[in-house]
Amino acid sequence: MSKPITRDEAWELFCQWNKEQFHRRHAVTVEGVMRYFARELGYGDEEDFWGIVGLLHDLDFEAFPEEHCVKEQEMLRDFGADERLIHAVASHGYGLTVDIRPEHEMEKVLYAVDELTGLIGAVAIMRPSKSVSDLELKSVKKKFKTPSFAAGCSRDVIQKGAEMLGWDLDDLISRTILAMRSCEAEYQQI
């Protein structure tokens, strides 16, 4: 029997499987970014759902990196999550680890911003402020073009995500910087 998952339940579940500060901080960052985009794109009534999808998207990554986006489906079903949440969470691995295509705009946003938040975060910590508050598009674009910088952040996935959304890359990056500014206090506390 599926049930809605509360934010507290999602966080508890995530922390059960993810002990590293890096993974917890990334989850909270993507949660905040997803909440921001829910409001900005006219899905404010689903902000909590978008946030929980962002929080849980890497549920299996730390414990089962070789089964990423596959194992988390089983984990969420065992928890009693509904199929809409499971599809949304797993779809960010489309073309990489699963064949679950992002369909809803929310899933496309998750696909686009997951890797991008990592890249933006890496650029931000190189700055004297160590913050996105004074980060500009041109700084991120410069590092985007340097494949060795934050090499684990797939530029191909970011570009495909922008295309899925029908946004140009500059727009996606600029909007994601703003989204990260909106939740920076939360993820820096982790």
Task: Explain what you see.
The protein has one domain. It is an all-alpha fold and about 190 residues long. It is built from 9 helices and no strands.
Fraction of residues in helix: 55-70%
β-strand amount: under 5%
List unreliable stretches of 5+ residues: none
Q: How many beta-strand elements?
A: 0
| Computed structural class | mainly alpha
Order of helices and strands: HHHHHHHHH
The number of helical runs is: 9
* Mean pLDDT over all positions: 95
Distance between the termini: 32 Å
As an assembly, this protein is single chain
Rg result: 15 Å
Name the shape in a single word.
Answer: globular
Total number of distinct structural domains: 1
Give the key terms.
globular; mainly alpha; 190 residues
Task: Give the helices and strands, then pairings.
Blueprint: H1 7-17, H2 21-40, H3 47-56, H4 71-79, H5 83-90, H6 105-125, H7 137-144, H8 155-165, H9 169-188
Structure, briefly:
With 190 residues, the protein is mainly alpha-helical. Helix content is 62%, strand content 0%. It has one domain (7-188).
